[in-house]
Write a structure and sequence with these properties.
Hydantoin permease, binds 4-fluoro-L-phenylalanine, 77% helix, single chain
Length: 446
């Protein structure tokens, strides 16, 4: 079945595509406002700890399962671990739909903001006026839905194009560009009047603000940002030829993702303080509300603003592509559906569930489930429950079921020297399951 499986064209292409999956709205839209809501510096420290303790070893674990099995998540778990385990892959596919339902909505806002920069709606340094632009957009009944639809179609087009030609080529050029524009914006943001306080809030931890909820938020954010716990990394790993040196690639992806999240924090939080918005108050609109004032304070602000939202949309696209690819790869491999058909069907489902997610910021904001609107519920379910759970099960699978086989697969049967591989396996056996399990339990019942 898998004899003709497509592979990444080059090492750089793979790293850029995997980093493209990781770097997205999670870094630039979500990380800054989560940090704001969860106490600033202390959240940053706990987030970084989650990346170091769980993130890196699990990125390796997922890539390894994918590479060893050369199959979609469901079949890959069956291949490496046998009966029962495919359920973990299936859970990942459901999670992909849940994440996509709100991801395309936020990506749609990004497209709207590209247009707003051009038509002058954002040419206003006043925080209240900029806040109003955002509220008007999300409260509108149909506009955000149309933008989400446009973004879903774009995602589907790239996925239909296939892994190598579509995903790999786009990522290689655009990721470095995003990085450059981010650096320029960071420099402007931290030199705004009043920015220093924001920088302090972000970088100097105040642990008295830490609660159990801080841990839940940090681990959810770490998994979301690294595209972990639902089979996206596994799927990308399945397009890797067997001889690749996984740890080096995983390390590069984790570092890139983390650097970009931290840069986004250094950009948004000072801008937020400069705009006089309290850190807990920005909500999901934070990045959209505060950055236009940064552009306004720059020479050539319209170009920077447009470039920023364009590249953010592209970063979102390389992430949403990996989410949809995970689903499509399953239907293509397991159900013998054509790539085109599988993509069109899945994208239609995504669009359908993105409608309530979009309306929950406006027309349906009063419709709540367990005290959350549909958008927040989807976000909570995926980031705070399903991704950490998926990650924990992945750790158990590689740590206990594959065990020494995992080390053999990692080192290409001993051909690569990795003296620390035992530490990695120990982490997957004990540290990750117990640590993630504890955070999950106290998040749900604590
Ligand atoms: N990592 C992406 C981001 O930070 O925007 C979001 C994401 C992509 C989550 C793929 C999960 C996933 F499987």
């Amino acid at each position: 079945m898998n004899t003709a499986r497509e592979h990444w064209g080059s090492r750089l292409g793979f790293i850029m595509a995997a980093a493209g999956s990781a770097v997205g709205l999670g870094n630039i839209w979500k990380f800054p406002y989560m940090t704001g809501e969860n106490g600033g510096g202390a959240f940053l420290v706990i987030y970084l700890a989650c990346i170091v303790v769980f993130g890196f070893s699990l990125v390796m674990a997922e890539l390894l399962i994918g590479r060893a099995a050369q199959r979609n998540p469901v079949a890959a778990f069956r291949h490496v671990a046998g009966r029962g385990w495919p359920a973990v892959g299936a859970m990942g596919i459901v999670t992909a739909f849940i994440i996509l339902s709100f991801y395309v909505v936020v990506a749609g806002w990004t497209i709207a903001y590209m247009l707003f920069t051009l038509n002058g709606s954002l040419a206003n340094p006043d925080a209240a006026a900029l806040g109003q632009v955002f509220s008007d957009l999300v409260a509108n009944a149909w506009q955000p839905v149309v933008y989400a639809a446009i973004f879903t179609v774009l995602t589907a087009l790239v996925v239909i194009g296939g892994v190598g030609s579509g995903i790999e080529r786009a990522s290689k050029i655009l990721m470095p560009l995003l990085f450059l524009i981010l650096v320029a914006l960071v420099i402007r943001a931290v030199t705004l009047p009043g920015a220093g306080e924001g920088l302090e809030f972000f970088l100097i931890p105040d642990f008295s603000k830490v609660t159990g909820a801080t841990f839940t938020a940090a681990i959810g954010q770490a998994f979301f940002s690294l595209s972990l716990g639902m089979g996206a990394m596994l799927t990308y790993g399945s397009y890797l030829p067997k001889e690749r040196n996984l740890p080096a690639d995983a390390f590069a992806v984790v570092v890139l993702d983390t650097v970009i999240a931290v840069l986004a924090g250094v950009m948004v939080l000072p801008a937020m303080f400069a705009a006089g918005i309290a850190p807990g108050e920005g909500g999901a609109g934070t990045t959209f509300k505060v950055l236009p004032a940064v552009f306004d304070a720059m020479p050539g602000g319209v170009i920077f603003g447009f470039g920023f939202f364009l590249l953010l949309a592209v970063a979102a696209l390389t992430s949403s592509v990996s989410l949809l690819e995970t689903v499509v790869c399953y239907f293509v491999d397991e159900r013998a559906v054509s790539r085109r058909r599988a993509t069109i069907l899945s994208a239609t489902c995504v669009f359908a569930i993105s409608i309530p997610a979009s309306l929950s910021s406006g027309l349906w904001s009063e419709v709540t489930f367990f005290g959350k609107n549909f958008f927040d519920l989807m976000d909570f379910l995926s980031s705070s429950i399903l991704l950490p759970l998926g990650g924990m099960l992945t750790a158990l699978c590689v740590g206990w079921v594959m065990g020494p086989r995992a080390i053999a697969a990692l080192t290409n049967d001993g051909k690569l020297s990795m003296p620390w591989a035992g530490v990695w396996l120990f982490g997957l056996r004990f540290v990750a399951p117990l640590g993630i399990g504890w955070i999950l339990l106290q998040g749900l019942f604590g």
